[in-house]
Each structure stands twice: as structure tokens, then as C-alpha cells.
Amino acid sequence: MLDNLKETGKSIGQEISRAWDLLSDGWREIFNRSSNALTHFAGGKEVTQPTGSTAQTFPRWSLLAGEVEENGDELIVRLEVPGMDKENCQVRIEGNRLILSGEKQLERSSETSCYHVMERAYGAFQRIIPLPGSVIEDKAEASYKNGVLTVRLSKRGPEASMSIPVS
Q1: String of b and e for 98-130 (b: at least 16 CB within 10 Å)?
Q2: Is this prediction's pTM over 0.90?
């Protein structure tokens, strides 16, 4: 009987260790791949919830996942900014950095509604994307479709600051 308990304990310990290793690997990959995408949203609305509700405020951090693709003489930057209007996105270039800033607005169906899950962040934000080289600011183009902001940049330009209108 004691041997069975020892074996069961050992087996449970091995399963917990294996589960912990898998969980740790997953978190490491998320952190390594997404650490720059982790974006702070400031000044989002507090949401009044009925008494007894488990969710009280919206998150202040969220992922704005992106990619920078180099294609010949062009850099293409894509950022996922779902739930935003293009009018709320500002894009500018400062040196070898693309800076996206804006504000994600809360759209609540009713003031009396009750949220049970709150995973989306709202408020003002800024995301800085390092560029692999200088770009020609005058040729920059930005577009927004299906929640993805795409910025096309011609390489080899002088370093300066410029705002880019989003179409």
C-alpha cells in the first residue's frame, strides 16, 4: 500500500513537472515573440459593474502585433489594431523608428450591461517599431483595412520626422 502511494506521488510529480515545463515554454515563447508588441493603454474608461460581477476594469495592457517586411527597396510594416477607426491612428517617422499612436474607444451597447470577460484594452497608446534602416519620408503611405494598418516605406532616406496620413 505504501509503495503504491509512493508510485502515485512520483507519477503525479512527474506530470506536474511536465505540465510546468510546457507552460514555461509557452510563456517564454510568447514573451520572446511578443514583448515589443505588449502595449500600454492609458486613460481608458472605468466600467461600472453591478455588485457581484467578477470583472471590474478593462485591462491596461494588450498586444498590438506587428511585422516588418523588407522587399527590395521597400519596407512594409503591418500592425494589428482591431476595433479602431483609421481616424484614431496617427503614424509618424522619427529617424529609424515608426511610431503608431492613437486611442482605442470603448463601444458599449448599454450603460446597464454587465461584462463577464474583459480582455480588450481601451485608451490612448503608443507603439514604436524599430526600422532596419533609413527611409524616404515623403514616399511613405499608410492604409487601414480589416483591422490591419499597413505602412509602406521606401528605403534610404534622410533621417527626419514626418506625420503620415492614414487612408
Answers
A1: bebebbbeeeeeeeeeebeeeeebbbebebebe
A2: no
